[in-house]
Amino acid sequence: HSIYSLQRISVTKNNIIRIMDMVFTGLSNAIDLNHETVKLLEKYHTAEDFMNADDADLEKYVTKAMVKRIRSIAEKSPEPGNEKRSLLIELQSLLRILDLLIEEKENITMEMEKKFTSSNQMITSILGIGSVTGAVIVAKIGKIDRFEDAGKLVAFAGIDPVIKESGKVRSERSISKRGDSMLRTAIYQSTLVATRCNPVISDYYHRFVERGMPKKKALVASSRKMCHIIFSVMHNNKPFEVPEKFKTETD
User: Fold this and answer.
1) pTM score of the predicted model
2) For residue range 168-213, what is the model confidence (pLDDT) as tens digits?
3) With 70 as the cut, is the pLDDT of residue 49 above it?
4) Residues of the signal sequence (predicted)?
C-alpha cells in the first residue's frame, strides 16, 4: 500500500507540474511540492498572483530567499490566456488530492516505523533504504534462505535481464518483470535514492553513465547491484558497511 501511495503521489505531482508550466512558466523548476508549497499554490496560482501577494504572507510557506526567486520568475512569466485559466480549477483539485496523499503517506510511514521490528531494521543499514521501502522489501522477500544466491533474488524481483538474439547478435534489451512488482518498485526507488547517498551504488551507477549507458538502464543495472547487497545483509544477518576504499575517498 505504501509503494502505491508513493506512485500516486508521483503521478499527481507530474500532473500538477504539467499545469503549472502552462499557467506560471518556470515556477515548477523553483519549488518542490510538499505540504507548505501545496498550501501556497492553493492560495496563489499565477505570476500576477505572486507579484501582488504580500511578502509576509508568502514567507509563511517558503523562505525569504525562495520568495525573492519566485518573484524574479514571475516578472518574466507571461500571464495565461483565458483558455488556460480554466486549468486553474483542475490545478486546485489536484493540489487538494496531493495534500491528502502526502498526509496519507506520512501516516503510513509512522505506522510502518512502529511495526518495524529490530530484526527488520538490519535492512535499513543499507544507505538508500528507508523504513517504508525496507518493510516492503523484507515482507516481500520473506525468508532469505529460500534463495540460493543473489541471482535468484534478482530474478524474483523481476529485474533480471532478458537476452534478445538475432542471428549472431546477442544483446540485453530489457528486464523480465516476471517477479513481484511491489518488491521491484521498492528496490528501484531505494536504488534511485542510493545513487545520491550510498557510495557503493553511486560509484556503480556513475561508472555505467560515464561509459555512455542511458541513465534509466544504468539505474536498472544498479538495482541488480542493490539486490546483491540486500541478499548479503539478509543472508549474513550483518548490517551494511561502506567498504574502506569508499571511506577513504569521501574523507
Assistant:
1) 0.58
2) 544 455 666 777 888 999 999 999 999 999 999 999 999 999 999 9
3) yes
4) none
**DSSP string for 201-239:** HHHHHHHHHHTT--HHHHHHHHHHHHHHHHHHHHHHT--
- Cα–Cα distance for residue pair 162/150, rounded to 1 Å: 17
Q: At 99, list the grid cell.
A: 495534500
The DSSP letter of residue 27 is: G
Among 246, 222, 244, 242, residue whose Cα is nearest residue 233: 242
CA distances from 57 to 23, 52, 54, 99, 201 (A): 21, 11, 5, 20, 42
Give the chain's domains with CATH numbers: 2-112 (1.10.287), 116-250 (no CATH)
Alpha-carbon span 46 to 33, nearest angstrom = 16
Q: Torsion angle of alpha carbons 76, 82, 87, 91, nearest 10°?
A: 50
pLDDT in tens, 79-135: 777 767 788 999 999 999 999 998 888 887 777 666 665 546 789 999 999 888 898
What residues have CB less than 8 Å from 33, skipping those under 6 apart? 13, 16, 17, 98
Residue 43, classed as helix, strand or coil, is helix
All cell numbers assigned to 161: 535481464
